[in-house]
């Protein structure tokens, strides 16, 4: 069976699994999501098995699992309209297929540069930001204490950041430098989530703020890893940070 056929079958199987999870009772729902995440890991290992190396079991395979968790948890926050849920299922399937294509490029590009690798980095960044937004929105929607939001935010973002930074050089292991950069950015995001928990912002606003900061942080760190953190690049991300801060200032509850 060709790789693309395996990717299509895996995406369809997981889409059906996501649809079935929604029919479980409330008391079993989180167990069902955990089972779907485990199934995603196994199915992804099968779909990407042709070029999968030992270290990629912890650097490539977790991404589809986290993406599945993000969509499955966000699914429960949607209106019960049939059309809305069908559209999300279709988007999930297409997204999973795109993730498999991206992961396959990372797997076969080790040790050399291929043209598609640049596109894979762009797609990987998009799904990292999208997954972060869905999970952050879900966390804030639970209305937990600020320290719980910070802890869950750390758990969610640490693997996302680590995989995104690792994909730049595709080394055979996660280096100390990558681990340190990941830890630093994760702590910054966790502290911001704790701060936002104390302000009366809607969950979507909080999720977008976190996603914006994640975009800036990943952009700067990835440029540094590539040794392309030039003056113009730094200015661009600084302007984005200033704009994000300005929006944050305008939305502060002054009354």
Helix/strand structural class: mainly alpha
Helicity, as a percent range:
over 70%
N-to-C order of helices and strands = HHHHHHHHHH
Indicate the proportion of strand residues.
Answer: under 5%
Would you identify the regions where 5 or more consecutive residues have pLDDT less than 50? none
Number of continuous helical runs: 10
Label the overall shape.
Answer: globular
How many domains comprise the coordinates? 2
Q: What is the gyration radius calculated from CA atoms?
A: 19 Å
Task: Compute the average pLDDT.
Answer: 89
Oligomer: single chain
Largest sheet descriptor = none
- How many strands? 0
Please give the alpha-carbon distance between the first and last residues. Answer: 62 Å
Describe the protein.
The mean pLDDT is 89. This protein has helices at 3-21, 29-47, 56-59, 62-75, 82-108, 116-141, 146-169, 176-197, 203-225, 231-251. It folds into 2 domains: 1-108, no CATH class; 113-255, no CATH class. The termini are far apart. It has 255 residues and is mainly α.
Layout of helices and strands, plus pairs?
Layout: H1 3-21, H2 29-47, H3 56-59, H4 62-75, H5 82-108, H6 116-141, H7 146-169, H8 176-197, H9 203-225, H10 231-251
């Amino acid at each position: 069976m060709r790789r693309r056929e395996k990717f299509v079958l895996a995406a369809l199987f997981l889409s059906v699994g996501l649809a079935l999870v929604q029919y479980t009772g409330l008391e079993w729902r989180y167990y069902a999501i955990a089972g779907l995440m485990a199934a995603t890991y196994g199915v992804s290992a099968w779909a990407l098995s042709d070029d999968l190396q030992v270290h990629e079991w912890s650097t490539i395979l977790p991404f589809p699992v986290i993406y599945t968790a993000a969509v499955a948890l966000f699914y429960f926050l949607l209106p019960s309209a049939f059309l809305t849920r069908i559209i999300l299922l279709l988007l999930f399937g297409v997204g999973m297929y795109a993730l498999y294509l991206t992961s396959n490029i990372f797997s076969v590009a080790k040790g050399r540069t291929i043209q598609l690798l640049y596109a894979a980095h762009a797609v990987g960044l998009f799904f990292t930001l999208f997954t972060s937004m869905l999970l952050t929105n879900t966390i804030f929607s639970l209305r937990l204490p600020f320290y719980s939001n910070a802890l869950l935010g750390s758990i969610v973002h640490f693997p996302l950041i680590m995989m995104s930074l690792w994909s730049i050089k595709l080394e055979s292991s996660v280096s100390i430098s990558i681990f340190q950069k990941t830890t630093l950015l994760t702590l910054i995001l966790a502290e911001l989530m704790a701060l936002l928990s104390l302000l009366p912002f809607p969950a979507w606003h909080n999720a977008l703020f976190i996603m914006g900061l994640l975009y800036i942080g990943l952009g700067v760190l990835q440029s540094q890893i590539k040794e392309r953190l030039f003056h113009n690049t730094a200015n661009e991300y600084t302007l984005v940070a200033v704009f994000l801060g300005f929006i944050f200032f305008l939305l502060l509850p002054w009354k």
